[in-house]
Amino acid sequence: MARERKFSIDELFHATKQLLLKQGYDGFTFSLLADSLNVSRGALYKYFENKDELLTNFVFYEMDQFLLKLKQIDNQQGFEAQFDFLLHLIFSHSDIQKLSKIGQQIPGNEKKFGKLHFDMYQYLQGFIELGKEEGKLKSNLPNALILGYIFQSVAIPNHFDIAPSVWVSSIKEIIRHGMFTST
């Protein structure tokens, strides 16, 4: 009897991420994951009872890692520095929104993900308030709208393969100054 290849949780989560982003929730299977790790399906069941348990653990792990990095926004001095930090973080973790949407498809996790998003928005209230205090953001705009606008702007797909640096700086410019020229 052949000995089962060992794998780490990091390897498991890395393979899970690659498959999940490629296949989506419905296309993700333990068979595909086992093949990508070069192990039997039974080896996966030693760690997780089913696909949903694995995906729940994985997506919450990814979200927790993102939130840990997000909390470093407080180390940035001033709204402009925090804004640049936030956009850099979001762009460098561009798959987090897709993983979050996939996580919401896992039965029984809708409320958990809703709370996670709410907590993230609550955490960023200080960032928005700082922008308003410094006169960088319009005080009459609702905080949730500003945050939603930032997060949705970053999620715009780059269908025309514009160079990433140009894409990022253009989105920053549109968020900061709009797209209309001043006349």
Report on the structure:
The chain is an all-alpha fold. It has 2 domains: about 1-45, Orthogonal Bundle (Arc Repressor Mutant, subunit A), CATH 1.10.10; about 60-175. The chain is about 70% helix and about 0% strand. The chain has helices at about 10-25, 30-35, 40-45, 50-70, 80-90, 95-105, 110-125, 125-135, 145-155, 165-175. The longest helix has 20 residues, at about 50-70.
State the main characteristics.
183 residues, Arc Repressor Mutant, subunit A, mainly alpha
Summarize it:
It contains ten helices and no strands.
Residue windows where pLDDT falls under 50 for at least 5 positions: none
- Secondary structure: helix percent: 55-70%
| Share in β-strands | under 5%
How would a crystallographer describe the biggest sheet? Answer: none
Radius of gyration computed on alpha carbons = 20 Å
List the helices and strands and how they pair.
Blueprint (H helix, E strand, L loop, with lengths): L8 H19 L2 H8 L3 H5 L5 H20 L8 H14 L3 H10 L4 H14 L1 H9 L9 H12 L9 H14 L6
Helix pairs in contact: 1-2, 1-6, 4-6, 5-8
